[in-house]
Design brief:
heterodimer; A: Rossmann fold; Alpha-Beta Plaits; six-stranded mixed β-sheet; four-stranded antiparallel β-sheet; 10 helices; elongated; B: alpha+beta; 6 strands
Chain lengths: 302, 347
């Protein structure tokens, strides 16, 4: 089942396309990272998936063919927006009560226990919580709904490293225990390697890279060799990005599983997720997509 | 870091039953109780004041129509009730969600955002309408003796017509609905409040100046003295079939020391009977024929006639219900538009 699926999806604000010709299929059971520079369309894609906005072109489906914003989709998807908005004038207990009343399912016991564990007092006004506590409150409210899909928009942007770690630990626990699928957008690359096992790289409003992290890492290598020879191999190999430092050249190449022998005088290294992401971000023209065959189509129910 | 685990997934029905409406009652009350309490407190205080003013009026045993100007000033103060409720209660409902970003939380919960909007707007609209209607009821009772039978002030006049229970409730409801629409369109609290004040005032002025007189076809009379409480739309003087100005008529009347007093009323300088307000007296003019000449007869004798179109005071209640009715329809349309805009809003 594809947890989020889009075909030719586009969203235009005025005369600018925030998202354009976006075709992707994120399978369930993953922590999928939406990565891209500011303005790449990450938030727009999440808003479309949660039904907060309607597409200008194309279609998007969630939870295996459900229309975003439909009762089924609302019931199964929890969304934590950027900066984790909560009602500042309500107490934490009121926020729990409110969320319980707005949803068919809400596990009050779980939410209260988790907040207690985090040391967030129920009587405190939500607006008086620290940024990290507010993010944890929003995440607790989301997880208490027992969603099938958790969407997080820049969850780590405003958090310090410790809060970031705690936040992601909570997400990973829910993922492991409950099998909830997670899609998070981020431009913090360092954290992703630890949590994400599926990567979607957006650039300029369209999908540049999409795939399982393991597959992506296995199909890319860094070749290091004499700079003078770099141009020769760039023709033959699928070079994503070439970096020259003095006499040495570092080529990030896409091997696509083929076992081309490493040319004499060159060394081959495995690539890290951060290196790979940065290489693609530096080369907006390059693309690595699973191709339409991999993305199983399911009917979009209207 | 946490040993807690999420419980197993509940079994999902094929098509989920919607979250019941009643679950929104606590939420709406919790989030808007200050606004509702403010409305009730202010209208309650003003209502108590009106109650004692009305008691006093009844105990003094006579009605002074000379209190007209005082009545008008108080009435003007009460005119701000609907726009203020629209701006302070109606406009923030949606605008605050959008301005603070909390709509991203609330509108993505299982309740659904269109239903959330209905469940938020409907009880608040009902609350402010009932509060305003109750205040209008006290107003009608308190000022009734001064308004009904007042020869100068028509109960249909714009000063007080929209302060009675039906109209005040309807004008408050429409102000609230305008506020709700302004909130979703403008998306910021203060500009939406300002827009609500402007839009409501525009509607009120247009209604008072142009629409209200057309609720029913006006009556036309050539009788000089119109019935008490008549709401005059226009008066034309004519001499031998040709239109003449009011000053011409006054010149003629000066010869007998009379004048055109209040619109629709001829006064004479004599100490004849009649309520004081009905009289006009040109003090400087000599009054040789005072007390002996009827000004109306005198004018007719000079070939001067008057055609007046007016709405009789007896149409007060039909007009109240007509105005209340179309304002109710307009309010419902505006609130439906607000729900529709929330439903299909592009973030």
């Amino acid at each position: 089942m594809n947890i989020i699926e889009a075909a030719g999806l586009g969203k235009r604000y005025g005369s600018t396309w925030a998202l354009r010709e976006c075709t992707l299929a994120i399978p369930d059971g993953h922590v999928a990272a939406l990565v891209g520079p500011n303005g790449a369309g990450k938030t727009t894609l999440l808003n479309l998936a949660v039904g907060l906005t309607a597409p200008t072109a194309g279609v998007v489906a969630v939870l295996g063919g459900t229309r975003p914003g439909s009762p089924d989709a609302l019931d199964g998807i929890a969304f934590v927006a950027q900066d984790a908005p909560v009602y500042a004038n309500l107490s934490v207990a009121d926020m729990l009560h409110l969320t319980r009343n707005l949803n068919r399912h809400f596990d009050q016991g779980y939410a209260k226990a988790r907040l207690g564990e985090l040391g967030i007092p129920l009587t405190r006004k939500a607006g008086k919580l620290s940024g990290g506590q507010q993010a944890q409150l929003a995440l607790t409210l989301a997880l208490g709904r027992r969603p099938r899909l958790l969407l997080l928009d820049e969850p780590m942007a405003s958090l310090d490293p410790l809060a970031r770690h705690d936040f992601m630990a909570t997400v990973m626990t829910a993922m492991a225990d409950d099998g909830v699928s997670v899609v998070l957008s981020s431009h913090v690359l360092t954290e992703l390697e630890r949590v994400a096992d599926y990567l979607v790289l957006l650039s300029g409003g369209s999908v540049q890279v999409a795939g399982e992290v393991d597959d992506l890492l296995a199909s890319h290598r860094v070749l290091t060799g004499p700079a003078a020879e770099a141009g020769r191999y760039a023709e033959r190999l699928g070079v994503v990005h070439a970096r020259r430092g003095g006499a040495q050249a570092h080529l990030l190449v896409r091997t696509n599983g083929s076992t081309d022998p490493v040319p004499p005088g060159w060394e081959s290294h495995p690539v890290s997720l951060e290196e790979l992401t940065l290489a693609y971000l530096r080369e907006p023209g390059a693309a690595s997509l699973p191709g339409p065959a991999r993305a199983e189509r399911t009917e979009v129910s209207r | 870091m946490t040993a807690l685990t999420l419980p197993a997934q509940p079994r999902r029905d094929a098509s989920p039953r919607p979250v019941p409406w009643r679950r929104m009652a606590w939420i709406t009350w919790r989030q808007h109780r200050l606004a509702v309490a403010g409305v009730v407190a202010v209208l309650g205080a003003a209502g108590v004041y009106l109650y004692f003013a009305g008691e006093q009026l009844r105990h003094q045993g006579f009605i002074s129509y000379g209190a007209g100007p005082v009545l008008s000033i108080t009435a003007v103060l009460f005119q701000v009730i609907p726009p203020l409720i629209g701006a302070f209660v109606g406009a923030p409902v949606l605008a605050r969600e959008l301005e603070s970003g909390t709509f991203r939380f609330t509108w993505t919960q299982g309740f659904g955002r269109a239903r959330w909007t209905v469940a938020t707007l409907a009880p608040l609209a009902l609350a402010v309408t009932v509060a305003a209607g109750a205040f209008g009821f006290v107003f009608s009772w308190s000022y009734g003796p001064q308004i009904n039978g007042n020869p100068i002030l028509s109960p249909l006049a714009a000063t007080t017509f929209d302060l009675h229970e039906v109209t005040l409730a309807a004008w408050t409801l429409v102000a609230f609905a305008i506020g709700a629409v302004a909130g979703i369109v403008i998306r910021r609290v203060v500009p939406a409040m300002f827009a609500t004040l402007v839009a409501w005032s525009g509607l009120a002025v247009v209604t008072g100046a142009f629409l209200r007189r057309h609720y029913e076809a006006p009556l036309v009379t050539s009788n000089f003295n119109l019935p008490d409480g008549a709401w005059i739309e226009s008066q034309r003087w004519a001499q031998d079939g040709k239109p003449v100005s009011l000053s011409t008529v006054d010149q003629v009347l000066q010869k007998i020391g009379a004048t055109v007093a209040a619109p629709g009323h001829l006064g004479r300088a004599a100490a004849a009977s009649g309520p004081s307000g009905q009289f006009g007296q040109s003090a400087s003019a000599p009054a040789p024929a005072a007390g002996s000449v009827n000004p109306a007869q005198y004018l007719l004798h000079h070939g001067i006639t008057q055609l007046a179109t007016y709405q009789p005071a007896s149409r007060f209640w039909p007009f109240q219900w007509i105005e209340g009715g179309w304002l109710l329809v307009l309010s419902l349309l505006l609130m439906a538009a607000a729900v529709w805009l929330v439903h299909r809003r592009a973030a």
